[in-house]
Amino acid sequence: MDDRPSPPDTRPHRNRPDAGPVSGIVGYRLRRAQMAVFQRFATHFAELALTPAEFSVLALIEANPGSKQSEIAAALGIKRANFVALIRGLDARGLTERHQTAGDRRANALFLTAEGRQVAARANAVQATFEAECVARLGGAAARDQLMDLLARLIGP
Amino acid sequence: MDDRPSPPDTRPHRNRPDAGPVSGIVGYRLRRAQMAVFQRFATHFAELALTPAEFSVLALIEANPGSKQSEIAAALGIKRANFVALIRGLDARGLTERHQTAGDRRANALFLTAEGRQVAARANAVQATFEAECVARLGGAAARDQLMDLLARLIGP
DNA sequence: GCCGAATGTTCTACCATATAACATTTCCGC
DNA sequence: GCGGAAATGTTATATGGTAGAACATTCGGC
Question: Does the global pTM surpass 0.70?
């Protein structure tokens, strides 16, 4: 910081910076939308205390019991190094279990515990209502499909 | 971790976890798209060494010279506490300057330095080509407009 | 049998976000 | 005017997600 004299203020409106330069950028709006959606996700999942990452891991283990850590991590785009703390947390909460695989002594096979299955069921219900809220916000299933298609084009290689 | 015997593996395909449960969720795909876009942003801006946040701050100061920190931060959805380190970094790199405002001894008025203006000009050029790449990926300006509209619906209150 | 690859793990680093607390300064109602 | 509420910048701390490098163990192909 310094205290040299300031150039004159040439802004059009003194208290409302013009966000124009960035508000039209795809990546910027994508970011803002994602933040908004995750914010609402956190509200819905406050009771279950699940982050988006944790929810997706539970959902994938539920759909693919016995998967290896690397498989689940890769399917979600998470580095296997970063997956360790995540799955350890779910383990510590008694929602998941890591068993030694029969044929491969390196890999851990992932399963839901009985409590994990209960939590997953409740999480799926919460997610369903949250998803419905998002679709309503978008203006219907057709708009949702359109958005999903456009986002897929951004994801592709 | 434990080493109790594993339940049988009941997955449909042993090496490809079914991402279905989450791949159809709006928030999940939003997240993946945002990661992909920011990844490419980082590639384009590697030479200028600007993060998305830094670029947006430069762009807003360029469009609104003399704005206060709180104004720029609020316009970008950044908490003013987190904005401090950001603007200090740009200051340290000689791209921005914080001057005392005439009328308010609390506020800092933000300006670009000469070098900051040069960097901003180059950054705008890089951003323009990157944006064009995103639009091409989406399939044209119409698709871009559609996406921006759908994302705006998710952002709104 | 050996060597490369896979797997889980630890460590470290970076970016972004959130909340709370604080000193200074301004503003507003009375 | 004065006093309390609000704004501004700042510090500190915590959380969550990402990334890369290195390591020991284990598997598999040749």
Answer: yes
